[in-house]
Amino acid sequence: MLRYRTQGLLAVGLGMVAGGCFGEPVNKTDLRSEGPPEVLAAMGQSLVTLEEYSFHCRYVNGVRDEKAPGFAIDAILGGQIVCPETATEFAPTPVDPRAFALRVMFDELLDADAVETLDCDDDGRCSGSLDSTQPVTLTCDGTVVGYTGYYVPNGNNTTFPLGPSLYIAPNLDELVFPTGTECTLSIGDVVVDKTGNAVPADQRDLDLQIADLALLFTEPADAEAVGDRAVLGPDEAIAFVFNTYLDDATIAATEVVVLDGDGDPVADVDFAVDAYFVDTDTIYVFSTATDGFPPGNYTARITASAVIGEVNGGTVTFTANEDVRFVVE
What pTM did the predictor assign? Predict the structure, then answer.
């Protein structure tokens, strides 16, 4: 059975020819068929934004493998450097704590029948699955995580999705690890090329990290000059946006405050983590007074030494005040 796969908005410019409904690439490719299948790159995909960033790249003597992806066209980001030219320039990107998938890119086609099974309907439409073959093992903090996924035989090193690759989607209900947790993706013996060569032993364990809990941005943004500050209505909220879902029970009233123009605490101020959603990554700060904030200059603040927690137990400790200065007219 021939295979060919696309993946939503990310499947652009693949430059491959398919046979039938799914098909192996049949035109000339830039793949490296000699020797064992080498791991060129490993990507973490945010299932919230669909962005993919590398946590592993292949370097030989400190220089990027000639087949590894450098600049690649991305339908979401427009384009990005996946693997810098030298190993000293490469910094692994942690995966999204909210939900992530993984992609392992190889320098040649794999034995598709070894790495996945195909289910086909009466019309010849087929879908691949890693459920039975389990070609990799994902372990986080010593716990094996279940997953689904499929093999992507098409692709190249210049357009997203990169390929050929294995796409691994961990079971979301098993991704209950605190931010900052270390994980390892281990490639098994079943991953072989078309002549039966297995992945070299020194390329089988790929380390990655779930990103640390962090403040991403505020809405509005802070500004030092009064004339540059956002002007809000008396009932509007200030938002502190983090990179994963917060545990509001970890946030004390003394850690999220609003100060007036003289630096004094404002009464009738509250915050909420679930102001609009059951689970959210945002702390909303607002006035509980009947008429909201009176006209004036204000500072919404997460205070220095505040400890904010997320739903899986990770925390971040602020070492300095995080301010949003704003104006109410």
Answer: 0.87
